[in-house]
């Protein structure tokens, strides 16, 4: 079996895309929570955002901890990436300051942290499908400075229930193609027959047909 790293998993997703607005009082409470000792505790993450992060950016066996939206301040949720889904499991803080996960009890946050990061437990629900908790999903994610250069930009309008693209200028940089003598001859004959005949250049992209006054 290949050796698995227990280092916090860091994805290329932007953390700002998954942040959730909360009151200042709630934010202060979460930031002082002992769970902040774990880099994979996400204090402002919702269930939906956790699922999007893990499904889109994390391998099977990734996991993160977040506050429970329904269980009160002493209950947390462990969100785990399985092969085809994300499942959510309860982590409780007991009145005697111990923590409970599944059938196990932990004296403090450090013991809970050690259990997940070093012992890498196998977990599963009622379905019987199990997974090894191998990749803690870190909340410390740097935003990637990757951008796409805009090479095409045009407005559209509806014509007979179809989207037609209009150029925002009279010219457009079309692919280089050699003019055929037959086509040039046809243009000249059409101009002789119809004096107001004008040449237009068309480009078909998928289901969008665009036209331009000049080739360049």
Automatic annotation (TrEMBL):
SUPFAM superfamilies: PH domain-like (SSF50729), SH2 domain (SSF55550)
Biological process annotations from GO: cell migration; enzyme-linked receptor protein signaling pathway
SMART domains, alphabetized: SH2
Signal peptide: none
Domain (SH2): residue spans on this chain: 40-137
GO molecular function: receptor tyrosine kinase binding; signaling adaptor activity
Protein name: SH2 domain-containing protein
Native species: Amphimedon queenslandica (Sponge)
């Amino acid at each position: 079996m290949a050796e698995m790293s227990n280092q916090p998993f860091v994805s290329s997703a932007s953390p700002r895309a998954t942040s959730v607005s909360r009151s200042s009082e709630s934010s202060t409470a979460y930031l002082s929570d002992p769970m902040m000792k774990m880099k994979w505790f996400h204090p402002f993450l919702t269930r939906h955002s956790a699922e999007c992060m893990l499904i889109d950016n994390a391998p099977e066996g990734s996991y993160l901890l977040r506050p429970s939206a329904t269980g009160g301040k002493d209950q947390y949720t462990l969100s785990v990436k399985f092969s085809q889904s994300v499942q959510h499991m309860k982590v409780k803080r007991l009145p005697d300051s111990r923590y409970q996960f599944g059938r196990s009890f932990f004296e403090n946050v450090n013991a809970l942290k050690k259990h997940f990061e070093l012992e890498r437990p196998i977990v599963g629900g009622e379905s019987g499908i199990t997974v090894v908790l191998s990749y803690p999903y870190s909340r410390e994610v740097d935003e990637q400075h990757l951008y796409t250069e805009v090479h095409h930009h045009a407005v559209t309008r509806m014509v007979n229930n179809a989207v037609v693209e209009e150029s925002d200028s009279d010219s457009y940089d079309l692919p280089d193609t050699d003019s055929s003598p037959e086509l040039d001859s046809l243009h000249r004959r059409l101009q002789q027959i119809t004096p107001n005949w004008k040449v237009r250049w068309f480009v078909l992209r998928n289901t969008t047909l665009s036209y331009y006054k000049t080739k360049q």
